[in-house]
Amino acid sequence: MTEAVLTHTTVLLNEAVDELLKASAGAQGFYVDATFGRGGHSRLILSRLSAQGRLQAFDKDPQAIAEAEQLQDARFAIRHQGFSHLAELPAGSVDGVLMDLGISSPQIDSPERGFSFRFEGPLDMRMDTTRGESVADWLETATVDQITEVVRDYGEERFAFQIAKAIVARRQERGPISTTTDLAQLVADTVKTREPGQNPATRTFQAFRIFINAELEELEQALEASLHVLAPGGRLVVISFHSLEDRIVKQFIAKHSKEVVDRRVPFAKPAKMRLKACGRVRPSETEVRSNPRARSAIMRMAERTEVPA
């Protein structure tokens, strides 16, 4: 495989960094790139920080960590952890948090990672290959009901039950599924109708990836952590790539962007809102033409309004 295949184009690169650095601390602040990936956002942030600015990055992927370690900059530090560990930073110490929730192109395009149905490879899909069970491991023992729930809830797949039955039947007849192409073919044989231009296995692969990495649970934890670590005037910028993620982000910002009245104590002052919603941004037509993987991206922004508890 050529090196060109494994390059990554960062989605909403300039837009995200512009929004992040609108924090009241500006170029002198302390920022977090919660999902380093291949470093596109981090490199641009560092290029725009002053000598006093600092950047902390997180990532679970060992390959991302190796990429981050190439950055020789005293203002930068990387942690080999998921972004829910954001909560370990001191309260009110951060001026901006950026979360780019998309899977990187090198992850998708590396057959050995097992993220894509386009390549023959082990059915792995772990973001952190140093720990946890792979999708293949889980499918060795998962029940029809368990598989159905995952494919239905995380893939929004209407044929979830049929796919789950087929996976378990295949396991009982010929042994467990262990490769990406085996799973893709099984789903294609089971799902007889699909949206034009979409591979029948798209939703199933998405579901298993989200489940095995606990992506939605970690997103919820990281969003809550952002309220703890952001200083007043700090910015929260989140780029999501599918409706399940975006719904969580949208609801989180909406929930904390209004005063809350305790109905049990009607004369008490309402709890102050903790965030100010700052709108959303979609990729331009020009960006989508040059990078089709940007087409589903939505970036939402918010600003911290209250001194953290």
List the defining traits of the structure above:
Rossmann fold, alpha/beta, DNA polymerase, domain 1, globular, 7-stranded mixed β-sheet, 309 residues
What fraction of residues sit in β-strands?
5-15%
Shape: globular
CATH superfamily of the largest domain: Vaccinia Virus protein VP39
Main β sheet profile:
7 strands, mixed
Q: Helix content range of the residues, please?
A: 25-40%
Low-confidence stretches: 1-5
Return the CATH architecture of the largest domain.
3-Layer(aba) Sandwich
Radius of gyration, CA atoms, in whole angstroms: 21 Å
Kindly state the number of beta strands.
7
Number of structurally distinct domains:
2
* Order of strands, widest sheet: 3-2-1-4-5-7-6
Number of helices: 12
**Topology-level CATH name of the largest domain:** Rossmann fold
Q: Tell me the structural class.
A: alpha/beta
